[in-house]
Amino acid sequence: MSAAAVEYPRDVPGRNLLDEAERLSGMLPGYRVEIIGGEITVTPPPDGPHGDALSDLMLPFYAAGLHGQTSRVIQALGIWLPDGPFDYAIPDLTIVDADYRDHHIRANCYDPAVFRLVLEVTSNNIGNDLKTKVAAYAIAKVPVYVIVNRMKQRIHVLTDPIANEYDHHRVYAPGEHIALPESIGAEVTLDVAAILTTGRL
To answer: Does the global pTM surpass 0.90?
Structure first.
């Protein structure tokens, strides 16, 4: 899955980036259209192992009780980003406060304050996940950002956002287990090898 960035001209009368993103979404069913850093990014539909890894990742969150009365585990939930007038992203998986519906902003996107964790599973868009989205999620003050790096067979856990980066960035290899920060609302441990094996390209 490769992501292509397209910047729509800002001087077209009566149109803006959000209008163009919505137009592209209608033209490209199944594609993920986001606006990050003032650029529209279009990502093709994911492959089967990508979705399989996401399904496996949801299980420990469910087992920990994170999909309940105080928080919810949701795929492809839009987060409105504060670093541009129309910026938003659609992470593969999120953990959000249960009252997220009360914090709708625009275009099916929600206030970043309700996001406890965002998670991305990479495909060919690895640069977007490891660079562009790191800055975007840090600026939005998302406390925990997890990246399942299928290309390098590693899982990245970024915590403690400061300005446009995360203060802590730890990379885990197969054979290790990840204890996610309890700030997400529960104790959750991820088996790196199991996740990477399921999502293998």
So the answer is: yes
